[in-house]
Q: What sequence folds into this?
């Protein structure tokens, strides 16, 4: 039996795509090696506190606006399948998310084969064959991999195998009582671990070659989050902890017990130093596991071989009909936008579903007809940027598109920006693309430094210099960028003041259309 689709992985992305295929009656099945949906979250994060926002009390009555503050819900028409129904905690417990995913899978009726681990994937004559651990084979014309980054990213350091790993170490802080601990890595998993051990460990060093980047400054939610940075206080306020900049050159067992670490500093005159610890934990992130693919369909990799390389349609650059969903798609916006996180890739999965529909089932991208008058186009754009959760969560990656040909216009929502410029929507005489963006130098500006001049809200004349999130509208004539218009930023993110937002945008559209 050759199916239309095989999805590997019943995590949030796999469930999101499967629910869409199920609703349309497509021929698919999901293969999941775990016994429950979202099995990853039964283990991670190790200290069980999610850093995805769950803001229950928003003051909004519009479900679409609520999704701007809800980073855990999958997209569904069922109001009972909203994560705030499962927890009121701002940073929820991971067990609540596991329970939510199980209910999502049951209520949407997705077809998942649990306990089915793919061990080899091949492709011949346009058909993928997946061999599972029991010896059973599964075949489909299209394969969607939604496994996430399932392997620990271990740096190539001599002796690193002597260290404990984030994915397997015992997170009970009591076992670290009065010990010297080295945490290798400077991401959220490293600081999550260091924060959890502070009450018990004698000394903790968090080490890595790169600067610590704060999410509140870069606006990338994968950088260090405030919920995990108590450790920084303990360092700068002299409490026996430290963040050290440089690389671990080697790890050896010490004759006196514990470990001897050779550490190369990044910015001191003492370039190499011997350090001693009782425990070492490797918290250096995760990577994609490509070992299951044989030579007939092994996808090209990118970013130090940590992710599959993809086109703007989330398709492998070298294997036709092999697609990726979920956190694997962060290769398209690595450390810039939100495809690495549920509140971002849930919309990426919806875009993928629409791409599959247009490519294989003759289903064009959903569109609403619109009067091709500048006022009507501007009003439609303003209405969307003031309400859309997709443009809000997928800033700089997804955009709404208004195609104009003669007196007709079509409004298409939530299209990957690169997919538009790559011609995925086909030709158009005029096309307006709107998204939400931070200013180009936003990550170099301290938003809390009152001595740094910045654009004030509703400043029409300097809207293009805005640092904070604001709408940007670009005009393409026959596929070539012909003009750009910035809407002035607003404290409440309400871009609907007639003289500030709508009228200047109307004038821009009118000028573009001649």
A:
């Amino acid at each position: 039996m050759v199916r239309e689709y095989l999805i590997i992985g019943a995590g949030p992305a796999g469930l999101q795509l499967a629910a869409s295929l199920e609703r349309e009656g497509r021929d698919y099945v999901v293969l999941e090696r775990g016994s429950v949906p979202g099995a990853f979250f039964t283990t991670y994060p190790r200290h069980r506190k999610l850093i995805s926002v769950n803001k229950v009390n928003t003051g909004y009555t519009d479900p679409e606006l609520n999704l701007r503050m809800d980073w855990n819900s999958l997209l569904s028409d069922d109001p009972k399948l909203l994560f705030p129904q499962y927890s009121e905690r701002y940073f929820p417990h991971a067990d609540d998310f596991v329970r939510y995913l199980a209910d999502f899978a049951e209520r949407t009726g997705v077809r998942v084969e649990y306990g089915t681990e793919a061990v080899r994937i091949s492709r011949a004559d346009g058909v993928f064959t997946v061999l599972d651990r029991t010896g059973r084979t599964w075949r489909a014309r299209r394969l969607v991999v939604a496994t996430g980054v399932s392997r620990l990213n271990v740096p190539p350091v001599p002796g690193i195998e002597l260290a404990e790993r984030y994915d397997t170490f015992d997170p009970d802080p009591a076992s670290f009582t009065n010990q010297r601990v080295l945490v290798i890595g400077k991401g959220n998993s490293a600081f999550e671990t260091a924060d959890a051990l502070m009450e018990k460990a004698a000394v903790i060093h968090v080490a890595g070659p790169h600067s610590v980047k704060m999410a509140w400054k870069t606006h990338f939610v994968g950088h260090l989050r405030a919920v995990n940075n108590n450790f920084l206080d303990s360092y700068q306020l002299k409490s026996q902890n430290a963040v050290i900049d440089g690389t671990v050159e080697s790890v050896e067992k010490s004759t006196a017990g514990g470990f001897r670490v050779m550490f190369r500093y990044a910015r001191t005159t003492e370039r190499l130093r011997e350090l001693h610890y009782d425990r070492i934990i490797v918290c250096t992130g995760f990577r994609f596991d490509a070992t299951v693919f044989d030579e007939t369909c092994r996808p090209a990799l990118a970013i130090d071989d940590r992710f599959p390389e993809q086109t703007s349609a989330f398709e492998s650059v070298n294997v036709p009909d092999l697609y990726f969903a979920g956190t694997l798609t962060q290769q398209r916006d690595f450390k810039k936008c939100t495809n690495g996180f549920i509140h971002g890739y849930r919309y990426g999965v919806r875009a993928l579903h629409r791409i599959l529909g247009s490519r294989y089932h003759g289903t064009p991208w959903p569109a609403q007809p619109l009067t091709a008058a500048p006022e009507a186009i501007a009003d439609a754009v303003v209405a969307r940027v003031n309400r859309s959760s997709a443009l809000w969560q997928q800033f700089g990656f997804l955009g709404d598109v208004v195609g104009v040909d003669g007196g007709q216009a079509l409004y298409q929502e939530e299209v990957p920006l690169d997919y538009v410029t790559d011609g995925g929507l086909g030709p158009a005489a005029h096309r307006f693309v709107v998204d939400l963006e931070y200013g180009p130098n936003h990550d170099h500006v301290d938003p809390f430094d009152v001595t740094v001049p910045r654009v004030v809200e509703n400043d029409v004349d300097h809207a293009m210099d805005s640092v904070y999130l604001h709408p940007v509208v670009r005009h393409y004539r026959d596929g070539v960028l012909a003009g750009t218009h910035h809407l002035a930023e607003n404290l409440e993110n309400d871009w609907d003041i007639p003289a500030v937002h709508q009228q200047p945008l109307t004038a821009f559209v009118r000028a573009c259309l001649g």
Q: What stands out?
A: Residues 152 and 466 are 39 Å apart (CA to CA). The mean pLDDT is 94. The first helix runs from residue 12 to 24.
